[in-house]
Amino acid sequence: MIFRGSQVRMIVAFFIALTLVGAVGYHWIEGWNWADSFYMTVITITAVGYHEVHPLSQAGRYWTTFVLAGGLTGLAAWFALITAAMVRMDLGNQYRRRKTRKEVSRMRDHVIVCGGGRMGVQVVHELQDARQPFVLIDRDEEAIRSLRRVSPDVRVIEDDATRDRVLEEAGIKRARALVTCLSGDTDNLYVCLSARHLNPDLVIVARAEGDRAIDKMRRAGANHVVSPNVAGAVWVASVLVRPAVASFLDVTAPGSHLSRHLDHATVGAGSQVAGSTLAKARILDATGLLVVAVRKLGTPPEAVLLNPPGDTVLEPGDDVIVLGDDEQVAKLREYVG
């Protein structure tokens, strides 16, 4: 809490008591009515400097000095409470930022997510489910608060993702991938240009709204470009044209609250399956996973060998794409890694 309830209650009780005591004193010493006594007490406590309601006697002046001293003490305590609350609030933010910077400085091969909108939040949830290290960059305080209500431990850099300094603070030179899903194509394009310049080996995934923006994102350095409009239209058409396949893909898609999905494992340099064919690797027997595709090292992402035959040779660096659950995928990565 910014304000401590017990301290607030004490100060409020002090002012109420001082007002009652002051009014009783004026009524008893000067013989004023209760309205004048209360008004005189209030303007004295708050030190507003208004003229006395009636001429004061010597005893009344002493009493006014007492009430004024009490009012100044109460006001000082109130302003001290407000100042302490502001300092506490700022120190909390500073502590969180410092903690985030220290954690990010130790991260390697992590993912940077630029933008905490609906798409960015979904990306964050998927990365959390996959236990992938990541850091989010966003300057929308309301979006950050909403995300922290769901994921209190999420690492967030509250700044502008289009600035090189912010990307460097997020560890872009040590990151393995960046996702830019800001609300505007111009901002996403700018992030692509900056990210590619700062880390030529970075895998960049960008969001784009139109066909022209998709081409520009690729020219700016994005490895993959996702258009929510195009993806949504393709999915709607698939549901209508190929309903059985669409239902199957919907069940196996990440975020469906089921553990089964498409994933991949990379063949390691010293792997026991390196140099073996798929048939000899016996991945299905060892892990229970069905190999649906293989992407050879050095080929573009779209050059995937679907339904690979049994004589396909697995070499170090090849990606084996499978269908299964998280436990099976972990077993596969240990088996071929």
Task: Please provide the count of β strands.
Answer: 10
Placed side by side, the strands forming the largest sheet appear as 3-2-1-4-5-6
Give the proportion of residues in helices.
Answer: 40-55%
Shape: elongated
Average pLDDT taken over every residue = 82
Largest pleated sheet = 6 strands, parallel
β-strand percent reads 5-15%
Commentary on this structure:
It is a single chain. The chain has about 325 residues and is an alpha/beta fold. It has 13 helices and 10 strands. Helix 4 links the parallel strand 1 (about 110-115) and strand 2. The mean pLDDT is about 80.
Question: What secondary-structure arrangement, pairings included, does this model have?
Answer:
Layout: H1 5-29, H2 34-45, H3 58-105, E1 111-114, H4 118-129, E2 134-137, H5 141-150, E3 156-157, H6 164-169, E4 177-180, H7 185-198, E5 203-207, H8 211-219, E6 224-226, H9 228-241, H10 243-252, E7 261-266, H11 278-281, H12 283-287, E8 290-295, E9 305-306, E10 319-324, H13 326-336
Parallel strand pairs: 1-2, 1-4, 2-3, 4-5, 5-6
Antiparallel strand pairs: 7-10, 8-9, 8-10
Helix pairs in contact: 1-2, 1-3, 9-10
